[in-house]
């Protein structure tokens, strides 16, 4: 190192005098095989050397990316280097030449180029022809290996075409390299030649559907027999002999032989022919598909009927007329109109027509018109509605108005009569189901009418009177039930049924009734509250109406002992309350002085004859028992209990 510093010092002192033999000094970049390189590549290891070996290897130093300024003092004689990024790099040599120990520096700028993977695109055309283009022409020279034993060199700036002698898939490799350097990069793709088109079995236009009928409408095509790799033009018949068909769309980039394609901005006001033609990437046009006509539909509503007319170009074998997606009629292929009389005022119906035919190859094709709506007008008075009334479990009357088939209401009016008084309007709305929450268990009858969306009011409905039930507990404990007759079923009431419900509104027992009264002798020894209602069933069994719900509270049954003996023998050791038909209780026990010695509920331990852990003396103690019923009321019992020891 000291010697190197000495040499460098001498170099700067003698810089002006060190011009001898400059023309014989140079540096070169060599590859691994020792070949001199004019262009360097990223990732390539090169050796930098004195061109003429005038400097000894151990006195030859290099700075591989010299930026100018002060001369650095390299510490190694390494002459190999690999550049990792493209650009222009100045290589500085610091060397001792000759026996006179003169030290000198020379430099050379090398261009380092990137070696990207070459990118190419291709287009397959008919008859085995494939055109190739380089997408990133950075190399000086490109070589295609077409995968069939043939190669071709190109500058990468022009498109070349190669013709394969057989059909199939081939691995094409493109190699790019720079002049003056052996480094290169390559990429490969699988290239498939286009299959041959079978002109005896051309593409089939299976279905033409007009999605929107207008001057800027749209159509949908269903196709079969497509050949991937080709594009297809969609064409419409013009009727002009100078240009019979015009292109209205293009289909490309598909991978299946079948396809559904929508074409926008098409004049679909007339029923005219459509076809598709295959075209390869080189612009060659082949035999077209079968020809299918679109259908132009006109829908005109009249008095309770709809008139349909349609236009088309031959040939169809039959037509099908659909309303709201349901087939109405099948007609011959020469039909052009249909009248629908099975319609209802105020309703909106959707119509479309489907034509079917057979192409020259014997394949069936279909054409579907656009779907058009028609709102029906009428002056016919609709039939009366049917009204059903029934109590719910909250003792509200549920009123349901059933409109005649096909009718819609713009307004429904329900009237009510209480205790036979004149009918008064209860509600007016578009709803066909309402609640009468203000009836308060009074005998009531209802009737209804409606105005349809054509503005015509129907006659008044049937009179509907829900069953009104009353119940009373007899002195013998039985429950006497009485109810009014139900009015409103067209065929009358077929039967009445008494239903007993629990607190969850589940029917736990039912009894048939032959009249409008019933006495429940059995009662239930499990339900603290007896809940009764009447179910009225029509003669045909399809109509059901319920009465109001009546609740009868059963008397609380509490077993209270007269004495207890807290002697630990397991028998009658505590004063406890047992029974049913109550939800809870509070028990207070008093001594002779009137002081509370025990107070507890059903959740506490029973009284064991102690107070604060101290045994109380035997004798009589007074108590007050307060029971809580399921209705939320309280009932009180008093008496004495004898403590025995």
Mean pLDDT over all positions: 90
Measured distance between first and last alpha carbons:
119 Å
Tally of structural domains = 6
Residue ranges: pLDDT <50 for 5 or more in a row? Answer: 1-22
Count helical runs.
Answer: 1
CATH architecture of the largest domain: Sandwich
Strand content: over 45%
Instruction: Report the top-level CATH class of the largest domain.
Output: Mainly Beta
Fraction of residues in H or I helices: under 10%
Query: Considering the protein shown, what is the CATH homologous superfamily of the largest domain?
Result: Immunoglobulins
CATH topology of the largest domain: Immunoglobulin-like
* Structure classification: mainly beta
Number of strands: 53
Largest sheet: 8 strands, mixed
Write down the Rg.
Answer: 52 Å
What overall form do the CA principal axes indicate?
flat
Domain PKD: 136-175
Keywords: Signal
Organism: Pontibacter chinhatensis
Signal peptide: 1-21
């Amino acid at each position: 190192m000291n010697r190197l510093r000495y040499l460098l010092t001498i170099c700067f002192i003698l810089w002006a005098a060190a011009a001898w033999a400059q023309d014989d000094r140079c540096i070169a970049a060599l590859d691994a095989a020792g070949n001199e390189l004019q262009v360097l590549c990223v990732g390539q290891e090169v050796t930098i050397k004195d061109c003429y070996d005038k400097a000894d290897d151990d006195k030859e130093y290099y700075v591989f990316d010299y930026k100018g300024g002060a001369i650095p003092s390299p510490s190694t004689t390494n002459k190999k280097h690999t550049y990792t990024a493209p650009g222009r790099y100045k290589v500085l040599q610091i060397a001792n030449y000759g026996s006179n120990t003169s030290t000198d520096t020379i430099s050379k700028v090398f261009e380092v180029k990137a070696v990207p993977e070459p990118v190419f695109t291709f287009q397959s055309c008919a008859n085995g022809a494939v055109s190739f283009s380089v997408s990133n022409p950075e190399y000086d020279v490109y070589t295609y290996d077409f995968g069939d034993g043939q190669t071709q060199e190109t500058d990468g700036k022009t498109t070349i075409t190669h013709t394969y002698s057989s059909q199939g898939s081939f691995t094409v490799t493109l190699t790019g390299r720079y002049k003056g350097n052996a480094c290169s990069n390559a990429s490969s793709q699988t290239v498939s030649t286009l299959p041959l088109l079978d002109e005896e079995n051309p593409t089939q236009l299976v279905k033409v559907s007009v999605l929107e009928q207008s001057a800027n409408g749209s159509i949908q095509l269903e196709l079969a027999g497509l050949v991937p790799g080709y594009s297809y033009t969609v064409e419409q018949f013009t009727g002009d002999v100078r240009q019979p068909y015009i292109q209205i769309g293009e289909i490309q980039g598909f991978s299946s032989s079948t396809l559904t394609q929508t074409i926008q901005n098409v004049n679909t006001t007339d029923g005219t022919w459509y076809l598709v033609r295959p075209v390869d990437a080189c612009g060659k046009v082949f035999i077209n598909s079968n020809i299918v006509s679109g259908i132009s539909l006109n829908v005109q509503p009249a008095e309770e009927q709809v008139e349909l007319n349609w236009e088309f170009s031959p040939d169809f074998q039959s037509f099908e007329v659909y309303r709201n997606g349901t087939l109405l009629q099948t007609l011959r292929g020469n039909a052009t109109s249909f009248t629908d009389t099975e319609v209802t005022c105020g309703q909106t119906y959707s119509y479309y027509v489907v034509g079917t035919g057979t192409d020259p190859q014997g394949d069936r094709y279909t054409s579907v018109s656009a779907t058009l709506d028609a709102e029906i007008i009428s002056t016919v008075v609709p039939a009366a509605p049917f009204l059903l009334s029934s109590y719910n479990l909250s003792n509200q009357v549920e009123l349901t108005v059933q409109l005649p088939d096909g009718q819609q209401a713009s307004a429904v009016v329900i009237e009510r009569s209480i205790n036979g008084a004149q009918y008064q309007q209860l509600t007016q709305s578009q709803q066909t189901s309402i609640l009468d929450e203000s009836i308060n268990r009074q005998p009531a009858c209802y009737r209804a009418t409606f105005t349809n969306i054509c503005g015509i009011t129907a006659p008044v409905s049937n009179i509907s009177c829900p069953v009104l039930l009353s119940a009373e507990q007899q002195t013998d404990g039985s429950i006497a039930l009485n109810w009014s007759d139900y009015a409103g079923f067209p065929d009358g009431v077929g039967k009445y049924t008494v239903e007993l419900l629990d607190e969850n509104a589940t029917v736990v027992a039912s009894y048939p009734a032959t009249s409008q009264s019933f006495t429940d002798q059995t009662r239930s020894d499990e339900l603290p509250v007896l809940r009764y209602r009447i179910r009225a069933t029509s003669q045909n069994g399809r109509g059901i109406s319920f009465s109001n719900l009546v609740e009868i509270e059963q008397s609380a049954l509490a077993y209270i002992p007269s004495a207890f003996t807290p002697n630990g023998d397991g028998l009658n050791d505590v004063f406890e309350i047992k029974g049913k038909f109550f939800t809870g209780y509070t028990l207070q026990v008093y001594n002779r002085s009137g002081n509370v010695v025990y107070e507890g509920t059903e959740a506490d331990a029973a009284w064991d004859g102690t107070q604060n852990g101290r045994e109380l003396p035997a004798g009589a103690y007074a108590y007050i028992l307060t029971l809580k019923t399921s209705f939320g009321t309280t009932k009180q019992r008093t008496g004495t209990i004898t403590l025995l020891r």
